[in-house]
Amino acid sequence: PSELNQFTLQGDAYYGDIGGRSLRQNLDRPILFFETRRSKVTGRNLLGRWTHAFSSESDLSVQLYYDRTDREIGVARDIRDTIDLDAQHRFPFVDRQEIVWGGSYRYSIDDIHETADFQMRDPSKRLHLFSAFVQDEITLMPDRLRLTLGSKLEHHEFTGFEVQPSGRLAWTPTERQTVWGAVSRAVRTPSRTDRELTVFADTTPYLPPLPLPLVSAATGNENLVSEELLAYEIGYRLQIHPRLTLDWAAFYNEYDRLRAITALPFQLRTAPGPPPTSYVFLPLTVSNDLAGETYGFEVSAAWQPLDAWRLRANYTFLRMHLRTRGPVPSFTEDTEGNSPQHQFALWSHLDLGRAVEWGLGVRYVDELDAALLRIPAYAELETRLAWKPNRHWELAIVGNNLLHAHHQEFNPVAIFGRNARV
């Protein structure tokens, strides 16, 4: 409406059909077998944002967001409504400093439809999340050295107050070079399922053969604390030529109190007949008994051989090592194997003239070597053709995963096993 005020209103609606395989077992069939499940996910959201500019160096933004999600997860259904109010303010502070601060409030209510396999202590719950942050960007040397310090403060109903500070230093020795480093702390607060879920699970793939059928149940833990991350990053950018830029970044992450599934002592039980059936029951619980580290690097390049042709490439390397913190072993092998060690992508963007743009890309993802369900490496092709008749409109045709009719990309997060007689 004016140069000083901007309004944004946007919304989305979506529908998805998800299919996947899960391992099943019961007392009548004490063997593993695959079952194909199909799930549906629908949702809609609406966002409104107002931004007011006090000057070229100071502005205020207020945003209100609503989201509704209806998701089936194979053995249960989760319907969730979320309202989020967010505000932030940017302004200069004394000489060579810029402050950004803000806060938000999030209200969420869910309705979880239970099944025999998937049960919650409270099928519906209201949650409140309060957060605030402040960041100070300090220019130590004009056009050469910048220091950014900040922290986020959250209050969550499950764990109380959480503090997440960060610091970042950027040095620009020349106009074509930038060196930067950062140290930050982050947390993941426990979810509702971490604390309140009871689910019948099949753990046979992790254990040696037993003479009797095995049934297990995993229960949540209301004493869980937040998972912690301490992240170290360093990077370097070099503009070799006005048309060629290289970026390199490396990271080392230390994790503590990670969520784990811990086994408790075995129990021998008998299911009612006729005839009665004896089986081994393994109780599982959620704990903070994992720790570990990840490290790796990423290299990317952007090259513009012609005015109308741009190329972008990147390669990522990742290694993960997890270990049990407590005296009882936890399931770690599949967690380590569910992230690819190598990823590569190449994208070409071409301006064809007459407001027509064409993009073509290929990506490669390394195998996932989790012990339960190994997923082979794959390569895929993507393309995008767009036409902009004017600055207000764009029409695009997008194609993803064009080399295969279908392929698996991830393993199930949990292995469920229904047993109506337990």
Structural write-up:
This protein has helices at 192-196, 333-337; strands at residues 5-24, 33-55, 58-72, 77-92, 97-113, 118-120, 124-141, 145-156, 160-174, 177-188, 197-201, 214-219, 227-241, 244-263, 267-271, 277-306, 309-324, 342-353, 356-365, 378-390, 393-399. It is globular. It has 422 residues and is mostly beta strands. It has a 21-stranded mixed β-sheet that branches.
Short note summarizing the structure:
2% of the residues lie in helices and 69% in strands.
Distance between the termini: 64 Å
What class, by secondary structure content? mainly beta
Number of helices: 2
Order of helices and strands: EEEEEEEEEEHEEEEEEEHEEEE
pLDDT < 50 runs, ≥5 residues: 414-422
- The whole-number mean of residue pLDDT values reads 87
User: How much strand?
Assistant: over 45%
Query: How many strands?
Result: 21
Q: Mind telling me the C-alpha Rg?
A: 26 Å
Q: What overall form do the CA principal axes indicate?
A: globular
Q: Which percent range fits the helix content?
A: under 10%
